[in-house]
């Protein structure tokens, strides 16, 4: 029979191996293509060219976190918590994306103007978060018996990781939608986001209802978020707009 010390050592070795495997998986260098990108100039050109594909690069998730099905839908399993990033930075652009949560209370979002580089000990990067919550989130996250504000689940905008902003419709430091338009589990939602010169305006299911201004970092990566529950994305399109006058301290560092 093994001694207590031997058993403890065996458990420690097994735990160490599990941690190392997890770290190696999250540092795995993989990517995929999803969504399209074009430019405003191309849209109005007399001889427009085709759409380009958006390439996504792993930051701190796993290869089996993401998959594109036969219908072109990107499925995110939600674990581990982390992000993938666009292979290039974007400054001024229009983002169109359709999304749906597949579990009650699901949590996710897209980061714009991000450094795509979470600080040590954290899972998520800095940037402007465009939040995507399933409607039951407020019912499943009561605090002292009280539900959080319903504004949580209808498309909030806020800076994270030291990125500062001025909200159009303040709820603390966040900006809340002025009309509740998001749809629940299994139903597709449509976000159209116009991001220009540190200002973002969000349309939820066909109406502009939220905005935020003076975002301190106004050029960076797009990040898709995995945060604990399955979410699906489709028809992601980026239209790049002409650049602004942007100083170096307003641009996220370039990554390899």
Automatic annotation (TrEMBL):
GO terms for molecular function: hydrolase activity. This is DUF1080 domain-containing protein. InterPro entries: AL/BT2_dom. Gene3D superfamilies: Exo-inulinase, domain 1. Keywords: Signal. Residues 55-238 form the 3-keto-alpha-glucoside-1,2-lyase/3-keto-2-hydroxy-glucal hydratase domain. It comes from Euzebyella marina. Transmembrane segments: none annotated. Residues 1-25 form the signal peptide. It comes from the Bacteria.
């Amino acid at each position: 029979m093994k001694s207590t010390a031997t058993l403890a050592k065996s458990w420690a070795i097994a735990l160490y191996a599990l941690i190392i495997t997890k770290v190696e998986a999250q540092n795995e260098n993989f990517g995929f293509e999803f969504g399209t990108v074009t430019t405003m100039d191309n849209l109005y050109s007399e001889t427009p060219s085709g759409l380009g594909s958006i390439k996504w690069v792993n930051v701190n998730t796993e290869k089996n976190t993401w998959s594109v099905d036969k219908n072109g839908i990107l499925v995110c399993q939600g674990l581990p918590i982390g992000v993938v990033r666009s292979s290039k930075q974007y400054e001024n652009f229009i983002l169109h994306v359709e999304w749906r949560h597949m579990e009650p209370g699901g949590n996710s979002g897209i980061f714009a103007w991000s450094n795509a580089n979470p600080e040590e000990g954290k899972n998520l990067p800095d940037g402007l978060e465009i939040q995507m919550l399933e409607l039951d989130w407020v019912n499943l996250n009561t605090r002292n018996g009280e539900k959080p504000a319903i504004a949580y689940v209808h498309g909030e905008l806020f800076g994270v990781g030291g990125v500062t902003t001025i909200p159009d419709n303040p709820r603390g430091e966040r900006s809340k939608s002025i009309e509740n338009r998001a749809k629940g589990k299994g139903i597709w939602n449509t976000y159209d986001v116009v991001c220009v010169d540190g200002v973002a305006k969000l349309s939820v299911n066909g109406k502009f209802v939220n905005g935020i201004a003076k975002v301190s970092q106004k050029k960076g990566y797009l990040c898709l978020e995995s945060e604990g529950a399955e979410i699906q994305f489709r028809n992601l399109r980026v239209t790049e707009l002409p650049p602004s006058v942007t100083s170096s301290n307003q641009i996220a560092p370039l990554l390899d």
